[in-house]
Amino acid sequence: MPTFTPPIKDQQFILHDVLKIADSDIPGYDELDRDFTSAVLEEAGKIAANVLQPLNAVGDRQGCRLENGVVRTPEGFKDAWTQMADGGWMGLDADTRYGGQGMPHLLNTATGELFSAANMAFQMYVGLSHGAASALYAHGSDQQKETYLPPIYEGRWTGTMNLTEPQCGTDLGLIRTKAEPQEDGSYRITGQKIWISAGEHDMADNIVHLVLAKIPGGPDGIKGISLFVVPKFLVNEDGSLGDRNGVSCGGLEEKMGIHGNATCVMNYDGATGWLVGEAHKGMRAMFTMMNEARLSVALQGYTQGEVAYQNALGFARDRLQGRDVTGAQAPEKAADPIIVHPDVRRNLMDQKSIVEGGRALVYWGAEMIDRSQRMGDAEAEAMISLLIPVMKGFLTDKGFETTVLAQQTLGGSGFTREWGLEQFVRDARIAMIYEGTNGIQSLDLVGRKLPSNGGKTIMAFFEMVKGFVKENEVDAALKEGFLDPLKAASKDLQSAAMYFMQEGVKNPLNALSGSYDFMHLFGHVCLGLMWAKMAKAAQESLDAGAGDEEFYRTKIATGRYYMARQLPATAMHLARITSGAETVMALDAANF
Amino acid sequence: MPTFTPPIKDQQFILHDVLKIADSDIPGYDELDRDFTSAVLEEAGKIAANVLQPLNAVGDRQGCRLENGVVRTPEGFKDAWTQMADGGWMGLDADTRYGGQGMPHLLNTATGELFSAANMAFQMYVGLSHGAASALYAHGSDQQKETYLPPIYEGRWTGTMNLTEPQCGTDLGLIRTKAEPQEDGSYRITGQKIWISAGEHDMADNIVHLVLAKIPGGPDGIKGISLFVVPKFLVNEDGSLGDRNGVSCGGLEEKMGIHGNATCVMNYDGATGWLVGEAHKGMRAMFTMMNEARLSVALQGYTQGEVAYQNALGFARDRLQGRDVTGAQAPEKAADPIIVHPDVRRNLMDQKSIVEGGRALVYWGAEMIDRSQRMGDAEAEAMISLLIPVMKGFLTDKGFETTVLAQQTLGGSGFTREWGLEQFVRDARIAMIYEGTNGIQSLDLVGRKLPSNGGKTIMAFFEMVKGFVKENEVDAALKEGFLDPLKAASKDLQSAAMYFMQEGVKNPLNALSGSYDFMHLFGHVCLGLMWAKMAKAAQESLDAGAGDEEFYRTKIATGRYYMARQLPATAMHLARITSGAETVMALDAANF
């Protein structure tokens, strides 16, 4: 059975050595000193390792069951939920006015990493509630906020997002669920939603569904979509629960993974709902919480990689097989541990460098969200909006790849259920699909984000990289191992952007055919930048005599691996991109 | 539920347009004209599509059950087995002296493609029997061959290979199973073997286990391993079944995939066995059938990609979502089929070009095995031995990637069990692990195969590529789209080999740290060569007015995609390789 050790030292390194959050000008960050974040992460880590992680395999094996309209979650989930709620984890970064803890989103991201690594299917219930609450917080009326937010932050109620229907996932303009206005100001919601995570379960007293639907007579397509709040139980004025609403779970999806999370068909049969925000502006309401939601999926990508890596590493240290080619390392034993073998190292270093780079990138993203939300910083908002599809698409692809690599470290044991690595592969796979498939992320990146603001934000990104390189080039070791490869990779990214500008204008297919490679090219540059920053921070700590030299040296060595072995992928992606649309679009659909 | 359509036209293209087998000098190939192979493939295709494919999901869901020592295979498997046996498919390429059909291995590979694509878990029972029979055929005594081969080729009995033990998979020198000589010339076999595919089941009257074990007092390590035949039921002189032997199934492994195949713990409790070949030469006996066995796993890689691609393609043609950016293609419908979108094309073209390239490579491999076995051609034997780790490692990695891409084509549907794509992902995953993990393949390639014959065989490979390029450069279209990129990729491979020669001599870690990338670099060059050959053959057919122009044009267009979009990976692998061992080996094991 797999284990999980909270990587708190690594988390603290990003928070304090790299991002130096306690010195930040973001309101609320001044509280986040080393001791405080350490205490919070330790507490979260205990729940993650002792409560959630042991339930991960249980959830996978038992799955959820639908019995007479009620979804039974796996054994132990309800107790774990209560412990999470009692610990105050449900509203850690929520407004104190509604019962939240008022902490920055970054801290919620760091604790979320622990919960997600320990039990992704469980943490999804938490994450969905968080997302629904964020949408209500941003767009709901005061009354809606007062009604729904405190019980969600207390963990008494949970939330869901209802977008997908059988005929539409990506193309939400095709939504058929209708919302008919009633005389009392409410709406009658009728239609079917599918793939609704946490749509129904037995862990909370009420479930607050946020539902996209069309008000008859409104504009066609996505311009006619509105957002509604539809509670499972209607809520009386005093906050107590009233009648059961006309919404029910019509079935559970059988899936490849995340079995502990209930993926529901939700039937709305004239359910009572209330408009959230303005009519026909539902898509806009969804988009304001998109960055947060997609960042949390990016996090799922590397966290599954992280727990998989930990278990691969443990196996590689224990398993005796073959001898070190440079001489026996454990002559007293029948064979050496397989970690001595270069190809096992290559595999582990790929995993390690992706996981740690991914963490740095996601924390930086969370910091930008805080900067945007807490300071109204438009540049931070533009930058995180540009980078979100990269983070979601690249890190979930790479996170999945990491689970596959970790599984491979175990050889045949990796394929057995007993060792548990295969569950990480199956669970991580969904992150490439939901919250907008990674193909859609790449279209969002190239079609919307890249050209937005007349390209100002991508130029700002290049300037930031250039500035960082210039500022640090005096350090010869940093220059050779990190800045030179970063510069080359960033140049590849610029060439690709230039290609899109020149050739995409002539023929949009030239840009769209390269969108996926562009997303990966961009992701590598981001991770290259993160590793350069981590190396700099580690060197500074070494220079300052911070102690724990092995830890900082290991950071630098891992970063050098990334720069030497992962970053060369940028040239390949550039070559694919600049080959253009011709070979991609050559076939008639009939000739495939 | 997924479907499978036998790709007979594509198979015939490789056999007759590319390999031109009917004109070959290999004994037995003269029978293989277009009509004959078409008839055989049609028959095999019927069984694959009508009998095996419908059982694929059944096998996945039901799995195998161990009841009182007896393994129950999924419903329908036994009937399917009987149909396969009655059709003569079990001994298609086996010696007619023992009841086989005497056909070339290439034809068995082509029919095996259909069975494997339709139901990999089922076909494994067939494949294991084939492997065991091949080992007996090569190393058994006449009496052993007469006893065991006819019932296996008739499908009345099956076979297994018993290598792995709890403490050793890769490092077989650690084997503990012992074989004590008895006075009657037999041996008492005692020990435990794990992960024995098809180790016990209810489809055949007897199971012929081939078991690696050590005769007490023999040499240490792998030099002291011998091969034994241990039937489940002892065989009387007249061929009838006698007493049950002391071998039994002690448990079934719970696995990520291939649930229809029984993965057994096999306990040998003083079982009676007989030496196959010479004492202490068991590893050599295994190696002679390794090429065939590993080629059949390479085939599993691309066949799972193939059936996954077929279903992804069907979905992409049917699913309506979004509009073609260049103008609506289905204005009468609510949206266009998603195959219009460039990123969906990119995804499908990656799948298609890998699957069709993989087929060409595996058929070429099977032809080399025939040339080696039927003509005693030492150069063919050397070449296939060099290429086998590339075929196994590269095609199973790429085949798995293809199933993941295909799953992605379906978006959320790809994650559900209902659509069945996720089973292909889970089943394909094992091919990267068994028959020697892909890491081990890369070590075999770089550590053993590359330097063997003083590098003569790899030089012959380069000469072959060079010769093909030179011979065809007059064709300007072939040169630009195929030969130039092939030349560049082959140059990258040469540079990598040169790096290993120069730097690997100084420090073997420099070669071993790049082995995995070398395997992939080599694989891309092989597929590039295959696509250049396919393009040439397609152009020749077009020039000859062979009809079906769309088919041949599509081959050329798919090949051009591969050369433009996949082959640039070679430069990335070269860059990883030439970065050397330093970053790979930088960390102490304790610092990971």
TrEMBL record, chains A, B:
Cited function: Involved in the assimilation of dimethylsulphoniopropionate (DMSP), an important compound in the fixation of carbon in marine phytoplankton, by mediating the conversion of 3-(methylthio)propanoyl-CoA (MMPA-CoA) to 3-(methylthio)acryloyl-CoA (MTA-CoA).
Superkingdom assignment: Bacteria
Domain Acyl-CoA oxidase/dehydrogenase middle: 161-269
Molecular function, one GO term: oxidoreductase activity, acting on the CH-CH group of donors
Family, as annotated: Belongs to the acyl-CoA dehydrogenase family.
Cofactor: FAD
Reaction catalysis annotation: 3-(methylsulfanyl)propanoyl-CoA + oxidized [electron-transfer flavoprotein] + H(+) = 3-(methylsulfanyl)acryloyl-CoA + reduced [electron-transfer flavoprotein]
Segments forming domain Acetyl-CoA dehydrogenase-like C-terminal: 461-588
Signal peptide: none
Organism: Silicimonas algicola
The protein's name in its UniProt record: 3-methylmercaptopropionyl-CoA dehydrogenase
Taxonomic lineage of the native organism: Bacteria, Pseudomonadati, Pseudomonadota, Alphaproteobacteria, Rhodobacterales
Gene3D superfamilies hit by this protein: Acyl-CoA dehydrogenase/oxidase, N-terminal domain, Butyryl-CoA Dehydrogenase, subunit A, domain 2, Butyryl-CoA Dehydrogenase, subunit A, domain 3
EC annotation from Swiss-Prot or TrEMBL: 1.3.99.41
InterPro entries in the cross-refs: Acyl-CoA_dh-like_C_dom, Acyl-CoA_Oxase/DH_mid-dom, Acyl-CoA_Oxase/DH_mid-dom_sf, AcylCo_DH-like_C, AcylCo_DH/oxidase_C, AcylCoA_DH/ox_N, AcylCoA_DH/ox_N_sf, AcylCoA_DH/oxidase_NM_dom_sf
Every Acyl-CoA dehydrogenase/oxidase C-terminal domain range: 281-444
One family name in Pfam for this protein: Acyl-CoA_dh_N
Keyword terms, alphabetized: FAD, Flavoprotein, Oxidoreductase
Main enzyme class: oxidoreductase
Domain (Acyl-CoA dehydrogenase/oxidase N-terminal): residue spans on this chain: 78-155
